[in-house]
Amino acid sequence: MLFGFPLVTIALWSGYFTLFCAALMVLGWMLKWGIRFRLVGITGFMGVLTGGLFALGLGLHDLPQIPGAVKFTRVFDSGASQVVIVVPPTITETQLDATLRQAAVDLYSTGRLSQGEATMTIRARSLLHPQPGVSQPLYLGQIKPSLSSPTDQQAIVEIDHEQFARLPKPLA
Fold first, then answer.
1. HEC states along the chain?
2. Is 0.70 topped by the overall pTM?
3. Which of 17, 51, 67, 167 has a CA-to-CA distance to 153 between 20 and 30 Å?
4. Residue 30 belongs to what domain range?
5. Max alpha carbon distance in the chain (Å)?
6. Is residue 170 part of a domain?
7. For residues 82 and 121, is the Cβ–Cβ distance under 8 A?
């Protein structure tokens, strides 16, 4: 938002002004006004400004926040339909559900290549350290949101309860 207006609205009005400048420029060329070359520059500048405002309006938007989600780190992303995130080993099952749903919202992109698949698979893992210097990945769950909708309400979260039981228990 800029001055309380969405950027797309500002881009629209800037586009109207660009068209006005273009009409004024054509009129200036037809009537051989002395400022016709300046009008070309003004129209070109307004075109670039309008394009930039429109692009900003497309890119800057707020993502919904899922309550209960914890911070995660993306460790693998094929750029298509496979993503792996890391969550802390202290996570609970309800937090994992919320975190996977938040990851589905955050990692959605219209530019992802589906390679024939209609869904993206986001897997959550944590690391166990059974002994010093040894790390063991532990896959806790996954979600398969649609690649066609940023807020897929039908996505089902699958949690692996056996792997969850292997996580270290928090100290009381």
1. CECCECHHHHHHHHHHHHHHHHHHHHHHHHCCCCCHHHHHHHHHHHHHHHHHHHHHHHHCCCCCCCCCCCCCEEEEECCCCEEEEECCCCCCHHHHHHHHHHHHHHCCCCCCCCCCCCECEEEEEEEEEEECCEEEEEEEEEECCECCCCCCCCCCEEECHHHHHCCCCCCC
2. no
3. 167
4. 7-59
5. 85
6. no
7. yes
31 is a domain residue: yes
Structural domain includes residue 11: yes
pLDDT at position 34 is: 94
Report yes or no on 91 lying in a domain: yes
Sign of CA dihedral 64, 65, 67, 69: positive
